[in-house]
Design a protein that fits this description.
- The chain has about 230 residues and is mainly beta.
- The chain has one domain (about 5-225): SOS response associated peptidase-like (hypothetical protein yedk fold, Alpha-Beta Complex).
- It is built from three helices and 13 strands.
- It is globular and about 45 Å long.
Length: about 230
């Protein structure tokens, strides 16, 4: 389960250096967030649907609620009692909740790292080179009480050796070379099958260290929540 993550500041130039993003005009990039929890609004990257600020099918950044609401859900959010902030890779294709988004609405979730807990203690996990990356995500647009809401889930898979002692799962961290393939929804067979992307990243790509226990309260923010990161090696 992935229930918290963090994202340092990423400039529009940083985004465009790695993906052909069309940012919104005259808007600053999203600010850093150091304690992102379910039910918060988070920027995602996706192929733009019709009617957005960016041309259709171009790559846009959009705010979305963390906790996917399927397009078929019509009741108030207060009546939704099932958890949808994570989507297990091994059940996506047959899931009534996630299969539609898996076929048509895949997204990327920019991040700098995530938190995991073991025996009540939090740990931070990031790439060894400290680069920002993207989780594999799914998004959905639902009509709730007369208003459209965009929501998303992070896809999880089995843990690699770096985090296996801390958690029974981990988020799918996609290699940059796989970002466009993941976004190209609707292509599922042959060598283009996206399910083969949903695997643990290499263990030696990650570093793990104790985080500040204050991260347990989602209201707390700031880089101090990362604790003392070990020196890169």
């Amino acid at each position: 389960m992935t229930a918290r993550f963090f994202r340092r500041a990423i400039s529009w130039d940083d985004y465009r250096a790695r993906i052909d993003l069309t940012p919104p005009a005259n808007v600053e990039p999203p600010e850093a967030q150091y304690n992102i929890a379910p039910s918060q609004i988070v920027p995602i990257l996706r192929r733009a649907p019709e009617g957005e600020y960016a041309p259709r099918f171009s790559i846009q950044i959009a705010p979305a609620f963390w906790g996917l609401v399927p397009a078929w859900w019509k009741k108030p959010l207060s009546e939704k009692t099932f958890s949808t902030f994570n989507a297990r890779a091994d059940t996506l294709a047959g899931s009534a909740t996630f299969s539609g988004a898996f076929r048509q609405n895949r997204c990327l979730v920019p991040a700098s790292g995530y938190y995991t807990w073991s025996e009540g203690s939090p740990f931070a996990v990031a790439l060894r080179d400290d680069a920002w990356f993207c989780f594999a995500g799914l998004w959905s647009r639902a009509m709730i009480e007369g208003s459209e809401i965009d929501t998303f889930a992070i896809v999880t898979t089995e843990p690699n050796l770096a985090v296996a002692g801390l958690s029974t799962s981990m988020p799918v961290i996609l290699e940059q070379s796989a970002w466009l393939r993941w976004l190209d929804a609707g292509v599922r067979d042959g060598e283009r099958n996206p399910l083969d992307l949903l695997k643990p990243c290499p263990s030696d790509a990650l570093r793990v260290w104790p985080a500040n226990p204050a991260v347990g309260n989602y209201r707390n923010q700031g880089p101090e929540l990362l604790g003392e990161s070990p020196a890169k090696c």
